[in-house]
Amino acid sequence: MKKPDLSVEIAGIKMRNPVMTASGTFGYGEEFSPYLDLDTLGAIVTKGLSLAPRAGNPTPRIVETPGGMLNAIGLQNVGIDAFIEKKIPFLRNLNTPVIVNFFGNSIDEYAELAARLDLVPEVAAMEINISCPNVKHGGIAFGVDPKAAFSVVKAVREMTIKPIIVKLSPNVTDIVEMAQACAEADADALSLINTLTGMAIDLDKRKPVLANVTGGLSGPALKPLALRMVWQVSRAVKLPIIGIGGITNAIDALEFMLAGATAVQIGTANFINPGIAQKITEDMELYLVKNGITDVKELVGALEI
Amino acid sequence: MRHFKSMVVLNEEVSPGYARIRLTAPRVIMRAKPGQFVMIRVSEGIDPLLRRPFGIYDLGSFMPEYPDAPLQDYLEVLYKVVGKGTRILSSLHHGDYLDILAPLGTGFTQGNPEEEKILVGGGVGLAPLYFLAKQLVKKSKVKVFIGGRRKEDILSVTEFERLGIDTYVATDDGTLGAMGLVTEVMESNLANGDAKRSIFACGPLPMLKSVAGISERWGVSCQVSLEANMACGVGACLGCVTKGRNHSEQTPDYRCVCKDGPVFDSREIMWE
Ligand SMILES: Cc1cc2nc3c(=O)[nH]c(=O)nc-3n(C[C@H](O)[C@H](O)[C@H](O)COP(=O)(O)OP(=O)(O)OC[C@H]3O[C@@H](n4cnc5c(N)ncnc54)[C@H](O)[C@@H]3O)c2cc1C
Ligand SMILES: Cc1cc2nc3c(=O)[nH]c(=O)nc-3n(C[C@H](O)[C@H](O)[C@H](O)COP(=O)(O)O)c2cc1C
Ligand code: FES
Hints:
A: alpha/beta; eight-stranded parallel β-barrel; 16 strands; globular; B: seven-stranded antiparallel sheet; binds flavin-adenine dinucleotide; binds flavin mononucleotide
């Protein structure tokens, strides 16, 4: 049989396959180059970026929970200047689209970041984090309020002709409402979900385990929730969707595609196996071959109910 | 940095609650430096989910038990059973397989061989110091100070002595060696003598902090190996950071224990 077609396109970004790496779990790509061929990935999404460098939260910042982990990194990052100067040169030599995830503390900051990234040719698209639950002002207000989300996306839209992906938070009552607000503000695609706010307690010490008290839950424990949200959003809005949450293998990834995702992002699984993103693509191809599917796009939204 | 499958060759209790596991390793791992660490995935399932970090206790090779087999390289980890992951590790047998990332992080800088090398280990923190001692003893005078709560927590004394190293022991309850803190024993030893020295320490944070203070007082250079909760082990998640000397909210100076460490010059760290 002919090799199946794994390629997908999201908002004009052509990807060789639907497997991307999730922001904050894959550094700036470089860290993983000893373990996989970065040019086998669909796209790389870089660590959440802000205008100024950011210190992040006190430690402990991470703790394992059953089937998952909590993180309260606090969006530590090098800031846009250092990103362009120190990280872009490595990314420039790749043959894989680079999507830059960013966040601001105000609409103006979002707009300014977008304007600056718009001028960086290596940036294939922007992913707006409106949802990080870790930092007091880290976007939480935007991520849970449809009006605020609309304003942010609109402001970013004014500043760039590059594709805009909005990354949604699961910490809301109605994710569909959030998705619709982003669509109305002219976003090109949606990625979901970000981490779900949780906490862990040390009984004997009578203290929270994380210095930040709460943290974002990620990993396999998140998958059923993420699948449900992808499914709901895909039925309600026309925008292409990138599914995220607890994906550790090709089966998980294909389930997200059935639920309506055109592509997926791999997060926590990169920590467990730094070569996993490439492996998922390989296994996805095997699945297609075995089942006589010639084009992975056939599976997008093909859930039968 | 390699990602490989490894076979358990032996896994034996060395003291109640502590064990030593020998794992086959590819040839290049023999280039690992003392102080570097490995990330072990203790089970295929999702609970425990993350890899567990361990120092390298020893490297070597053995002759497999079938005819004409080439030498097989191995690495060893000395571990304490503290929770889910280490309990699973302790249940493994010869022939079981594990998934490993190694070697990770920076190692100890061995420095001028003329210096006397002072090694200080607390509990299972001793582990990377044995591998270090094996290399240092070829060129330098080495002393090791081992501390723990009770006799059972004092590991590898025989192994160090076999290397011809002066070994000093202290326990909190006096069941082995001096009663008291290992750092006190080390400091009084520093007082008798004026050789040029450098310190290498690994163990619980309060011990390391005390060693850093002592090294400051005596003007002796000091490297410490830190621990932190880790997820990735490769510098990507920023979960394992520790504050550098000049850290402040305005001028953040966070170092990754996994990538910039786990070994740091004690003066590079902000001790809180
Ligand atoms: C660079 C590095 C090198 C290490 N080298 C060794 C080594 O050579 N030998 C060894 O036995 N251990 C070593 N450790 C500690 C080891 O990683 C932990 O003990 C192990 O991860 C615990 O896993 P668990 O699933 O058994 O415990 P969990 O179920 O995860 O935790 C059980 C209990 O142990 C505590 N714990 C968990 N992780 C640590 C930690 N990193 N330090 C102290 N307490 C912890 C938890 O707070 C909890 O109370 C090292 C850690 C680091 C970061
Ligand atoms: C340590 C860590 C750091 C993260 N940092 C970011 C970030 O900077 N920006 C962002 O939008 N999402 C961030 N995320 C969320 C992930 O991109 C992803 O949405 C989430 O972890 C769910 O996917 P997973 O279950 O596959 O990990 C982070 C997640 C983790 C675990
Ligand atoms: S453990 Fe992930 S950065 Fe150190």
